[in-house]
C-alpha cells in the first residue's frame, strides 16, 4: 500500500506521522514545492520509526511526481492555511490553482488512485478535482466532516462531563463555520440521546462551539490546527487501505442525495477499498434539513468563484 501526501506542512506532516504510527502502509511519499522540505520532514519522521515501532518507509520529494507513481491513495494538503480572522472561503484564490495542478500531476502518475482533498475551502476544492480530473466520483473524497465530528464529540463530552469514548455524534454539511450541521438529533451517550442529559440551550452552545472549532484554534495558534486534521485524514486513509467499511461524513459529489445536486458537500459515507462505497441517507430533523439546504447554498456560492 503506497500513499502520497502532497504538502509537507503542518497538516501533511501530521497526517504522514499518524499513518506511519498505525503501521498499515508499506510506503508514504511526502511531496512539497519547497526545496528539501519534504525530504527533511521524511527523514525526521523516519528517525521516529525505531522509537515508535513502525516499519512504514517514508520518503520525501521536492516536486518530483515520478516518486509518487502508482500510489493507491493520494492526499492533497498543499496550499495556504487561514490566519486569525480569515474564513476558509478567502483561501480560494491561491488554493484553487495549487489544487488543480497538484491533482492533475498526481492522477497523471497514479491513474488508479483514490484522492483525498484537505486544502481549503475543502468542499469547493473537492468539486474542482471532480470537474478537472477523470477520476470517478467514488475516488474523490473531501476530508472535513471527520474532523468536525471529532470536534463535536470533544464539545459533547465536555458538556456531558463524560469521557469521549462514551459519546457518539456526527457533523455533516459544508466544512465552514456557517455550513457545518452538527446532528444533535442523532448524538448519543452510550446509545441514549444527548437531549436526555443536556438542555436545548446547552446543546445549542455545543453546536456553536463545534462550528467555530477551527477558528477558535486559529486564533490561539496563529495558524490553523494540524494534529486533529492529520488524525482525521489518517482515519480515512486507514479505512480505505484496510477495507474497513467504516462510516465517516465526507465531502462527495451528490446527484440527488439529500435533495442536492452538482456539488460536493459532507454526508455520511461508507469507506472501503474502493473509496466511497455507499452514501448513507440519514433522516434529518426539519431544522437540520433547513440548515443543510442553507449550507449547500453557501458551498455553491463558493463554487461559483471557480474558473472552470
Ligand atoms: N479540510 C480540513 O479539515 C482542514 C484542516 C486543517 C487545514 N486544512 C487546510 O489544509 C491546507 C494546509 O494547511 P497547513 O496548516 O498544513 O499549511 P502549511 O502552510 O503548514 O503547509 C502547506 C504546505 O503546502 C506546500 N505547497 C504549497 N504549494 C504547493 C504546491 N504547488 N505543491 C506542493 N506543495 C505545495 C507549502 O510549501 C507548505 O509546506 C490549508 O489549505 C488548510 O486550510 C484543511
Q: Tell me the structural class.
A: alpha/beta
Number of DSSP-assigned strands: 14
Q: Cα distance, first to last residue?
A: 33 Å
Task: Report the C-alpha radius of gyration, rounded.
Answer: 18 Å
Number of helices: 10
Oligomer: single chain
Inertia-based shape = globular
- The secondary-structure element order is EHEHHEEHEHEHEEEEEHHHEEEH
Mean pLDDT: 97
Unreliable spans: none
> Percent of residues in helical segments?
40-55%
Q: Strand order of the main beta sheet, please? A: 3-2-1-4-5-6
What can be said about the biggest beta sheet?
Answer: 6 strands, parallel
Structure description:
- This protein has helices spanning 10-22, 37-46, 49-52, 92-109, 122-132, 145-160, 200-211, 213-221, 227-241, 286-303, and strands at 2-6, 27-32, 57-62, 73-76, 114-117, 140-142, 167-168, 171-173, 180-182, 188-189, 192-193, 246-255, 261-272, 275-279.
- It is of the alpha/beta class and 308 residues long.
- The two termini are 33 Å apart.
- The mean pLDDT is 97.
